[in-house]
Design brief:
six-stranded mixed beta sheet; two-stranded antiparallel sheet; single chain; 8 strands
Length: about 400
Amino acid sequence: MHLTSLAAFKVALCIAHGLPVPFIVKIILDDLADQALNAPRRLPWFSTGNALGFNCPREYQHYGWPYYGAAQSGIRPSLSREEFRSHFLFPSIVFAEVLAALRFPRSPGRPPNKDFAYMHDANGVPIRWVSQETAFLVFLKRMRTRGSVVIQLQAFFGRSIGWISQVYNAVLEFICSRWVPQKIQNLDGRVFDYWRLKDYEKCLRRNGLNLPGCVGFVDGTFHKINRPGKDGNNGELQGLFYNGSKKDHGLIFEMITTPDGLIVRANGGHAGRHHDVYVARESDLLGEFETRALKNFRLFGDKAYQGFGDKILHPYLAPQAGSYEAWFNKYTSGYRIEVEHNIGNLYMQCAVLQNEMNIETQLPECWFQASVFIHNVHTCVMHSNQTAIRFGMPPLSLARYLS
């Protein structure tokens, strides 16, 4: 293995300036280690097809083709760093940290390469296992794949469509049962406590939004689904999910965004025919202001939230041209748009949401809320996103968010 041109240039420069030998050796070792980390993994000529060092080809066949992964928690993908991040959203150097923070359930007595149960019998007893690393990679790749054609993942992982669907559904069920109710459907008051919300208020004041007690933005988003056809094209079910404004069928989610780029609440999914005010009442948004985390604080929304008093601030209704009210509406719209920016980032990171799902055979509300959770985890790991850069406020650490 030879040194890269950049490392060779550094070594020559150090020799020319007479720098000590340990410094030069460190440059060489770092370059060789980086090449070994990013080099494609190839099977040796004497291998039995087991690139990961397991005991028999059968275990290797169950684990998958050597496009990714390594034994236990060390990540040594055959993809480059850029390719790994493109396929799985997270950089390879932080993937083990994210996997450990999510705290996947382990089957007692199972080896590390097969400790996540993805199939159970009629009595709930696990009968099929896979490694946590493999399961999470399958889940992330499916989230990053646009459309419902799982054939792309079949060629990527070298496994059947049924196996990929079972593993993905098992991880989705775990996230929706373990993390979504606590972190997405409701605002976690233990994490977003009084002092954190006070920091949000100060951040907005520093950036020019001088509204007393305002800590974030609220808005409803419409997530499209396929036209329900279980009770006929003209049945009540399709009418329940049809939104006349959007001219499509879908679900409504209530999104609360903070200045650090986190979507701290995505309550839903409510039937698409309803208005944002109805969704806010059904989700008990006022209860957050009266007895829970948002007590003594406010949010800023659009004109749809005019019936919530001073709890949710909103633009003026029908202002006259050139008046202070018109200037205020134009000025605050530049801040409120950050909710739309976060929603756009969500659909970009989790491209699977761009595919319209069936309400009868799939769970689009679970897919959407799991995507919001992955978006928040990614924001915490990367310590920034578009909204956080705009307001100059770093997000929470991953350990703090998942505490």
